Amino acid sequence: MSWLNWNDLLAPSNPYAAVFFGIILTLIVACSIWYETKQKRILFIAIVTGGLTTVIGVGLLTMIGFY
Hints:
Blueprint: H1 15-37, H2 40-63
């Protein structure tokens, strides 16, 4: 994992690190939501929404030249 630096948690330095930490954060939030609701449908919606938000956000930041 040479594309991952120790400070990427604060400000990702490349799109791969941003997607990596975005997916990890999405899974943490989705598990928290599932713990509160105990509904698999809501869990699935949270994972899909978080994943799409992460991928679209990284795509937009890459498109404008942030990375």
